[in-house]
Automatic annotation (TrEMBL):
Residues 131-183 form the RNA polymerase sigma factor 70 region 4 type domain. Keywords: Sigma factor, Transcription, Transcription regulation. Coiled coil: none annotated. PANTHER family: RNA POLYMERASE ECF-TYPE SIGMA FACTO, RNA POLYMERASE SIGMA FACTOR SIGZ. InterPro entries: RNA_pol_sigma-70-like, RNA_pol_sigma-70_dom, RNA_pol_sigma70_r2, RNA_pol_sigma70_r4_t2, RNA_pol_sigma_r2, RNA_pol_sigma_r3/r4-like, WH-like_DNA-bd_sf. This is Sigma-70 family RNA polymerase sigma factor. It comes from Marinomonas vulgaris.
Amino acid sequence: MNQPNLPEQHTSESLSRLLNQVAQKDKHAFSVLYEATHRKLFGVVYRILKHQALSEEILQEVYLKIWDKASSYSASVASPMTWMITIARNRTIDEVRRNQIPSSEEDVDFDAIPDDSMMPDETFYKSRELVKLEACLDGLDSPRAEMIKAAYLEGLSRQELAEHFHQPIGTIKTWLHRSIKQLQGCMTL
């Protein structure tokens, strides 16, 4: 039940509606979407780049892409946050590959950036999904679980994975493909 004078909490459904309005070039909906999601997307970008100013610049490009591609969003394919995080992650990894960005020692206090984009029941659901994902990752062979984390959380390219794990790129591609299939099967149980 919504209480008056409280900030709106955004659910997957409300974010989907906002994306549909953004697809119709609704600037107000875009502003609301930005306010609801920019902290989380900044975190995704910053985790990979570790450069605050560059992360802010890339985040602007991410939101331009969201504005341009909102009409291609489909709720039946992915949740709104998953769709936007994928855009952010892919754009950031492209930047890393293009410019071979060195790591920075900058510190951003993520605890000082409130994240009010999920309802408590969504947080509970997400935490249950995270526990399940961690259990599924534990079911993978140790180097493969590490490889999945390095690829999808740290943004390492296949070449970087090959160097890190001392394996040919073809082997890395096969391991990634098989590991993702195994994770998908585990997550649907």
